[in-house]
Design goal:
Blueprint (H helix, E strand, L loop, with lengths): L2 H22 L2 E6 L2 E6 L10 E8 L16 E4 L5 E5 L4 E5 L5 E5 L1 E2 L5 E2 L2 E7 L2 E6 L3 E6 L4 E6 L6 E6 L3 E5 L14 E5 L4 E5 L8 H7 L2 E5 L5 E5 L5 E4 L5 E7 L8 E9 L2 E9 L4 E6 L5 E6 L18 E6 L5 E6 L9 E5 L2 E6 L5 E8 L3
Parallel strand pairs: 2-21, 8-9
Antiparallel strand pairs: 1-2, 3-30, 4-5, 5-6, 6-7, 10-11, 11-12, 12-13, 14-15, 15-16, 16-17, 18-19, 19-20, 20-21, 22-23, 24-25, 25-26, 26-27, 28-29, 29-30
């Protein structure tokens, strides 16, 4: 064979190998200022054998024992012993169940005294503490037996979606609602349990005004056993991991089957007895929850197609719109898993270790418990 022909064959081989590598590559990676930035092109695993395994249902519409009845179960958390705590804001109490779903006790109530709260929204558990957040930006701490410990307050719109960290610290969504629409208006703050700010971090994505940016940057928050903070942005193609002092460690995006457009529509609302037409943000929905399993894999509940504005309309099936995206510790999209069958609606999703909870406050007034199963 002539030397020229050999050179051509060698070049063709390099091109073919390069094209093959590109087909196999499921993500792109770059490191910027010590932060790992991953954009996922497709799942690494096409036909995963993993999924969610149903464990039990807590509560029902007409139980024989009223301890298993909820009015509107809204938020769920789990302690290190596997006990489940359910917040029912309408009843004003928190009910505690064993890992097998057996009723144990209840505590908390509506009011303004010690151990009482107004308009509770969410609970979170860590170590030997349980945190109750309220619409009035008051935060209440109990021990796991329901004994009241303390409370602290923050300015309005600070600490939303609050999560407990070790060493008497908490982290929450704290983008200024009416502040300057600038990059200095950070997304998160870490507070001590006296309400003092310890760290501010998270660069916002800005739209045309501060109120719109507040909505566009709203995020799901979780904290792992090492106090790393994870975010899955509801209206952005953006998943992030921060250290316990606010350093950005990992930034993840993925190819979406729909576009992202940040626009507004008109909506009529009664304000002080007068019906007014206001602008309503019609931002895309991308993610609805985040958790980290016992092996450090990141589970994100995401949308697989553009969601209609009226999710309560007849014929809406959540399984057609939602799926779980499972990422490795390094931010690589491993697989997409189907949303479990048999559930018609839910309001909140929580992941504690390998357990995933869905609270259904309006349909069956119950809590569904699943186990996240991963098979390599």
């Amino acid at each position: 064979m002539k030397p020229k022909s050999k050179s051509i064959l060698a070049l063709l081989s390099i091109v073919l190998i390069s094209l093959s590598c590109q087909r196999e590559q499921s993500f792109t990676l770059r490191v910027k200022d010590g932060t790992r930035v991953v954009h996922n092109l497709r799942p690494k695993i096409d036909n995963p054998r993993s999924g969610l395994e149903f464990v039990l249902q807590i509560g029902e519409l007409e139980p024989e024992d009223e301890n298993y009845m909820f009015d509107q179960p809204l938020s769920v958390t789990e302690d290190h012993m596997g006990n489940t705590f359910v917040l029912d804001p309408e009843e004003g109490c928190i009910k505690k169940f064993s890992s097998s779903g057996e009723y144990l006790t209840q505590f908390g109530r509506k009011g303004q005294g010690p151990g009482e709260y107004q308009y509770p929204m969410q609970i979170d558990c860590r170590s030997d503490q349980l945190l109750v957040t309220s619409m009035a930006a008051q935060f209440h701490i109990f021990d796991l037996n329901g004994e009241y410990k303390k409370k602290f307050g923050l300015p309005r719109y600070q600490g939303i979606g609050m999560k407990l960290m070790d060493l008497d610290k908490v982290v929450g969504y704290s983008l200024g609602f009416r502040h300057d629409n600038s990059k200095e208006n950070t997304i998160l703050k870490i507070f001590d349990t006296e309400g003092n700010i310890e760290h501010e971090f998270g660069e916002p994505f800005l739209v045309d005004n501060a109120r719109g940016s507040w909505t566009a940057n709203y995020t799901n928050i979780m904290v792992d056993d090492d106090n790393n903070i994870y975010l899955a942005f509801i209206h952005q193609n953006r998943i992030e991991k921060y250290s316990d002092n606010g350093k950005l460690l990992l930034k993840i995006s993925r190819e979406l089957p729909f576009g992202l457009e940040y626009k507004y529509g008109k909506e009529k609302m009664e304000i002080q007895g007068v019906v007014r037409e206001i602008d309503r943000a019609m931002f895309p929905f991308v993610s609805r929850g985040i958790g980290v399993d016992s092996h450090g894999r990141i589970w994100v509940l995401g949308y697989k197609k553009e969601v209609p504005r009226d999710q309560g309309s007849e014929g809406f099936v959540i399984q057609e719109y939602l799926h779980f995206e499972v990422f490795s510790k390094e931010g690589i999209l491993l697989a997409r898993l189907p949303f479990p069958d048999g559930m018609e609606r839910f309001d909140n999703m929580t992941m504690d270790g390998d357990h995933i909870y869905f609270a259904d406050p309006y349909g069956q007034a119950c809590v569904y418990k699943y186990k996240a199963i991963w098979r390599d």
